[in-house]
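Schema walk-through. Below, the input block comes first and the output block second. Nothing else is stored per chain. Lengths vary across the set, and this one has 122 residues.
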Amino acid sequence: MAWRLLLAWLITAVVPPMAAQAHAIILESSPAVDASVPGPDVPVLLRFNSRIDRARSNVSLAAASAPKGAHPQTLPLAPTDSPEILKATAVGLAPGSYTLRWQVLSVDGHITRGDIPFKVAR
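--- output ---
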């Protein structure tokens, strides 16, 4: 038993630790979570803690008033110079509740996703 513990200690002492790979975490969003924003056109900005693969990332919009089973509207991504930012514009929104749904592929190869609920003011 003692030799197993010695072997485990030796391996951890000799083998360098792997660098931790973080998933893309959202740091800032506009609109912010539960914000009330003016419409009908709403600019969208999502900033992450790391570079993301824009070609394999997307942002969509779901209206709370949409019929059950309706698919969210995919928002076209606007060009940006920052590899950690996604930009889009939701156009022609009526007053009400909405949810931005984002999914990104980070450079570490992991997919992360999330929702940002917000309201368009009357």
